[in-house]
Design a protein that fits this description.
By secondary structure, this protein is mainly α. It contains 8 helices and no strands.
Length: 219
């Protein structure tokens, strides 16, 4: 596992969240598959990323809203989860990502305060195009560093805890997926309800949950 490469990927995904592009590469589903491919286990990457996508499905980084971060935590979840046996890796990876998503939210708030100080004040001094460009690029650079450090720290801490957590997880894969699916149904259900027409969409949502549970039992 190339820790620096994964941390850099986490930094780039942090940029995709709001600072640059917003190409949705930082969505957990995409980030999970990408990380799984990098560490040699795209199946677990898809599984962890897909579960996290349900937890984060209602979260969209728009405007100045404060939101749990999904990209870098997903990188950490898959990177650490693939070092543990099947169900323990999935459960620990998802739990670690949910925890880091809150840490990421706090770091984004602190970053916004820092970048706000970089913006030139036209009342106090003359504002040149070069000064505006510098402030913008400095803010982007700080976000890259923030995502890099969040991913690096998350993987380092996760790998340190993983050996103890692996032996403590009591459920097999079907039970693990069922438990995680039940947890994910709360934010996913709230998102579906916000779209209107609950009865029609509720049937489709429940059909998807039942299909997921049946697939977890078969697999």
């Amino acid at each position: 596992m190339d820790l620096l490469t994964l941390s850099l990927i986490g930094g780039l995904l942090a940029l995709d969240g709001t600072s640059v592009g917003q190409f949705m590469v930082s969505r957990p589903m995409v980030a999970g598959v990408l990380t799984g491919w990098l560490v040699g286990d795209p199946v677990i990457g898809l599984l962890i990323g897909g579960i996290l996508e349900l937890y984060f499905i209602s979260i969209f980084p728009v405007g100045g809203a404060e939101f749990p971060e999904g990209g870098p935590p997903t990188v950490v979840a898959v990177a650490v989860g693939t070092t543990m046996p099947g169900p323990a890796g999935v459960a620990f990876g998802v739990a670690l990502a949910l925890l880091l998503s809150r840490v990421g939210s706090v770091s984004i708030r602190l970053l916004r305060r820092a970048t706000g100080r970089l913006v030139p004040d036209p009342v106090r001094s003359g504002v040149t195009p070069a000064r505006v460009v510098w402030a913008h690029m400095a803010g982007v650079g700080l976000d890259l560093v923030r995502g890099f450090l969040l991913t690096l720290t998350g993987i380092w801490v996760g790998l340190g805890i993983a050996p103890q957590a692996a032996g403590a997880w009591p459920l097999g894969m079907p039970g693990t997926l069922t438990l995680l699916a039940i947890g994910a149904s709360i934010p996913a259900g709230a998102f579906v309800g916000s779209l209107g027409g609950w009865r029609k969409r509720g049937v489709l949502f429940m059909a998807g949950i039942i299909g997921f549970l049946l697939a977890s039992i078969v697999l």
